[in-house]
Fold:
Amino acid sequence: MDASQYKCPNCGAELVFDPSTQQINCEFCRSEFTVEKIKEIYAAIEPDSPEETALKKDFESHTNLYHCSTCGAEIMAEDDTTATFCYYCHSPVILSGRLTGDFKPSKIIGFHIEREQAVQSFKNWCGKKKFIPSDFKSQQQLEKMTGLYVPFWVTDCNVTADFHAIGKRIRSWSSGSYRYTETKEYSVERVAEIHTEGVPADGQSKIEDILMESIEPFDYTALKPFDMSYFSGFFADKYDVDKAAVFPRIRDRVTQASRNIINNSVSGYSSVSVRNQSYNINKTKWDYIMLPVWFMTYRYKDKIYEFAINGQTGKLAGTPPLDKKRLALSSVIFGAIIAAVTFLGGQLFI
Ligand SMILES: [Zn+2]
Ligand SMILES: [Zn+2]
Structure:
């Protein structure tokens, strides 16, 4: 079998066949598959619908990519919107070409907060600060306020769980002057297909995670299928953390969640010793979504500070100061893992 014709169902990288194990491996995200599993997964994949293909073409032909040679930022904009400066470091940017349709987000939350509201929020915020330099609220600075779509990965995964353990039930009783102890050993097996939904990872390393977290939550029920018209007048970050880089983080969370589900299904024993268990993610559906943020950086005493407003709710945060204690309490809606489990039989064998 020529493994190179297949892409990794988890991260999209090239696959390599390993003759020693007869498995197909992904060297990027370290996933492993049997030949049968890969064939089965690929047989089930449906090609893009004509509508999706048209949307990708539309995205390809109407999105420009700009590059900042100072900080390396890559900025996307619709071709009617021209980027002239980098919203991270304020250096000039140059047009560097188009993007492929694979960079088209699948879903997006549009801006609800308008520019004037964002500017007013910033002014109010400045008003409460004691140590604000005089040019802080200058027109020049306010013009750096950028309507920015921030990229985010959200995944649904299919996991195959295989679990073998020995469970013991111990019973003891007295009869006459004898004390009896009976130990029964059970072979406990679990084979399950587990489906997890909505496990997130952010796709942008340039924005401080804590800044993004502090303007959460976004109301994800407002997610809409992406359409080019959302980009009009705004900018978007091209993700710089790709699927292969993010996947180990996703895998850890999904594996842990699956392990908990299996462990919780094993009960009623005095003791359980696990002989072996494996959790393989064999398919990952990626949603590349974009969230609206009014974003501004400012330089003060050679240090760059960031300021952000949730473009959906108006919640704002900036450095300084960030209240880290309060941040720890902020809810992460996408943190919840929804899992559906199908046991494939083999619940319990004596
Ligand atoms: Zn991979
Ligand atoms: Zn830059």
Observations:
- Residues 68, 70-71, 73, 86, 88-89, 91 surround zinc ion (ligand 2) (CB under 6 Å).
- The chain has a mean pLDDT of 84.
